[in-house]
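quick one, 246 residues, struct below
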Amino acid sequence: MNDWRGIWLWRALMMVWAALTVLFTGILCCLAAPIIGPRRAFFTIGRCWTHQQFALSGIQWHVQGWDQLPEAIRTRKQPVVFMCNHESLLDPPFLAVAIPIPAVYIAKKEVRWIPGIGWAVWAAGMIFIDRKNREKAIRSLREAATKIRGGKSVVIFPEGTRTRTGALGAFKKGGFNLAMDAGVPIVPICLKGTFNALPPGSLMLRPGRVQAAFGTPVDPTDFPDREALMEQVRCQVVALAEGLQD
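---
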């Protein structure tokens, strides 16, 4: 894409701007939390950050498939586990605008130490996983299942970590155990374009197009075992990727 916002100097300035505004956004969320509530503060102010950063960086975004989901999901009457491929550090802020309803994220514990924003996402209900401690990780997933049964939807990256090549990685079983334990549908999501917009090892955004596509909800009770469930969700993510334009 021929865009002046792709000039190296502008991208470098946007990197500095992003760092400063993330810190400011976190502080603003903390200040607004006692007034409007921590979750509303995080999702309202956080989405504003994503919109302004995308506009300044020349990133266009598009979402498809949300309107085809059952009304109960779109109106938050039916909690779900959103499962999405993981292309980039850009994925969480993009999903914050791509998913219209507030959803609790499950992330590695290191996120909580990000200045400003760490407290904000914790207050908003993010569940942190200690990947190095299996017992604590299992306890965190049980906590997530309790929240889901209480009516909250969650977002999980089943690959566990970002792709380094752009290819879809192997899915880990934790998120599927969570969906089965909570007894709620899984909604597959495919992200495309975030890998190019913010490649591994870079902190400078590139102009481009990022997309999110929602698949058909998958009911864990329709499958004989976890492996069959994992395969169905993975197949949907692959099919959604093929249906998205470059």
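The first strand starts at residue 59 and ends at 64.
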